[in-house]
Batch of 2 targets.
Target 1
Amino acid sequence: MAKRIFSTVLLWLIILGVMYFFQARGGIVLIVLVSAFTQREFYQMVVRMGHAPFARLGLLFGAAITVAPVLMAHCPLLTPENLLALATIAFAIRIVGERNPENRVESLGWTLFGLVYVPFMLQFLVRILLIQGPHANTGLALTLWLIAVSKFCDVGALLSGMAFGKHKMAPVISPKKTWEGAIGGLLTSAALGAGIVYAFGQYFPDALTPLLAAAVALPIAALGIVSDLVESVIKRRANTKDSGATIPGIGGMFDLSDSLILTSPAGFLIFSLL
């Protein structure tokens, strides 16, 4: 627990420091790095399953897809969707002459799923970062809000589960998760979401009041829980406890970013409506 707390505090100091000194550019670099390390760990788990994804080329396309919202400003054709289509063509060509006949379909499927599930989903976080107005740092504020609401749900769920947890939520997938913990996580995210908007309201859209922020935080946090369960499904299939050992007390980068994979596109859609 001490290592987990230390790593959490250190990671938040890094995120806040980078975004304070380097603004959106620093945030984009962080997102690309997180996406790349997460996708790498994903492919490593796929290898443990006995498959052979096109990891190197997949990582190159993944980096391009993650940063595509920035590239679109200079070349409208470089959209995430177009890059994903180009990657599909490239892997389809390679699969004809590479890999063993018995695992070609799996290699193609897992490689493409890794692209869709990690960089394609996380590029929505870059899109949030690029949101303009009403304040110059609105995009930064919304990005930090989404990360805080998504990740502190884990903290609230952990503490609530330790104190009150009795009823297992998904005993086969993740035995330690309880419904009491999930409720505590949701309430933590709602309170934090409202508190951030209340304290720093000048950086957020006028329509995002503290009450609305609390309401929006609930489905965002719920998706974070689902996203965490999906990662648990993948880890169980790969017969591994953690996706890696990059972060003491937490595990790998996938263990850190898992909840952001589903919350990033959902957050972008909600913020677009505001």
Target 2
Amino acid sequence: MTKKLYTGKVVSDKMDKTVVVAVTRLVQHPHYKKIVKRVTRFKVHDEKKCQVGDIVNIIETRPLSKDKRWMVVDIVEKAARGY
């Protein structure tokens, strides 16, 4: 069995060792055949201290809690921190 691997953007980091990652995909509408965006939000286990705006790779893992079934593999791109 191969584990699923997705790339997404961190949209929330308010929980302890958990971030919410939004994964965007393009799908074709079944009737109108137009390409539309679909966004799925995953709760992801985070030991790498991601922050909002980071682009991360996530991988499927065993259930870690009621909602967490994903883990951060690596940070692809750090978010710009302009103050």
